[in-house]
Write the C-alpha cells for this entry.
Amino acid sequence: MLFELLFLIYLLPVVVLFILLLRFARFIIVNVFRAAIWIIKKTVVLLWKGLVLFTALIAGNIVANRNQTDRGRY
C-alpha cells in the first residue's frame, strides 16, 4: 500500500511534465510547418510578381523601341 502511494506521488509529476512536453513539441512542430508553408506561399507570390514586372518591362521596351515610321499607325 505504501509503495503504491509513493509510486503515485513520484509518478504523477513525471506524467504531467511528459504531457506538457508532448504538447509543447506538438505546438512547435505545427508552428514550424505553418511558417514553412507561409514562406513558400510568399516566395511564390513574389516570384510571380517579379515575372509579371519583367514581362511588363520587356513589352514596354519593345513598344518604346519601335521604328519611328510605325508611329502613325495608331
Notes: The mean pLDDT is 91.
